[in-house]
């Protein structure tokens, strides 16, 4: 894919390095000349421009991008970039960084945002996931809150031990997508047996999260 990243600070450069390693075409757009450092991400295209200016984005060819990532440290800038990318250039996928969790409610499709990533919220969720056994932890919000990626680690004495996946009576609007067991990533099949310590990842709406807890007996 061709991916544009607005903001070439530490976050933007780190994302760019990961993406170029995965064989994507990356364009970094940065306003501050001091942050222009082509040697830090040699395989990326670097553009010295203000990503909030329509003319600059036109000159950079943003319409050719499959994805735009608004990764600056300023939420206002990230919102403007997202809106321009979606409304003026019809970019298919727009991902925006949320710096202040209090602003998270703004990062919706009204501003052209498909996926909002709040670093503080994500870090908090990962801490919970690391220590919470037998509880449901929300890891990521998808599609502006329409669904969530949630995780449950089965406790040592789970009543589900040895039972097949097909025995789970999961609510509508939920799906078990992955089982993490030790170093393995298991795509669940109907006859796969559950084990204590399994990390179960579900995609589900917020309304049925309590029903998932009930189905797992946690």
TrEMBL record:
Segments forming domain RCK C-terminal: 137-218
Keywords on record: Ion transport, NAD, Potassium, Potassium transport, Transport
Keyword tRNA-binding: no
Gene3D superfamilies: NAD(P)-binding Rossmann-like Domain, Regulator of K+ conductance, C-terminal domain
InterPro entries membership: K_uptake_TrkA, NAD(P)-bd_dom_sf, RCK_C, RCK_C_sf, RCK_N, Trk_Ktr_HKT_K-transport
UniProt KW Nucleotidyltransferase keyword: no
One Pfam family, short name: TrkA_C
Domain RCK N-terminal: start-end pairs: 1-117
Top-level taxon of the source organism: Bacteria
Name of this chain's protein: Trk system potassium uptake protein TrkA
């Amino acid at each position: 894919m061709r991916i544009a990243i607005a903001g070439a600070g530490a976050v933007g450069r780190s994302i760019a390095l990961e993406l170029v390693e995965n064989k994507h075409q990356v364009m970094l757009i940065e306003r501050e000349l001091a942050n222009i450092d082509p040697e830090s991400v040699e395989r990326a295209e670097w553009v010295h421009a203000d990503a909030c200016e329509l003319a600059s984005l036109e000159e950079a060819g943003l319409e050719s991008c499959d994805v735009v990532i608004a990764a600056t440290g300023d939420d206002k800038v990230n919102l403007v970039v997202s809106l321009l990318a979606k409304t003026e250039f019809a970019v298919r996928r727009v991902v925006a960084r949320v710096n202040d969790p209090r602003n998270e409610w703004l990062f919706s499709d009204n501003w052209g945002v498909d996926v909002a990533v709040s670093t503080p919220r994500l870090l908090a969720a990962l801490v919970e996931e690391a220590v919470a056994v037998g509880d449901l932890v929300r890891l990521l919000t998808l599609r502006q809150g329409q669904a969530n990626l949630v995780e449950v680690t089965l406790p040592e004495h789970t009543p589900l031990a040895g039972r097949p996946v097909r025995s789970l009576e999961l609510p509508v609007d939920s799906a078990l997508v992955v089982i993490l067991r030790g170093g393995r990533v298991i795509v669940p099949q109907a006859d796969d047996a559950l084990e204590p310590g399994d990390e179960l990842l579900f995609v589900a709406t917020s309304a049925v999260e309590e029903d998932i807890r009930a189905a797992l007996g946690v």
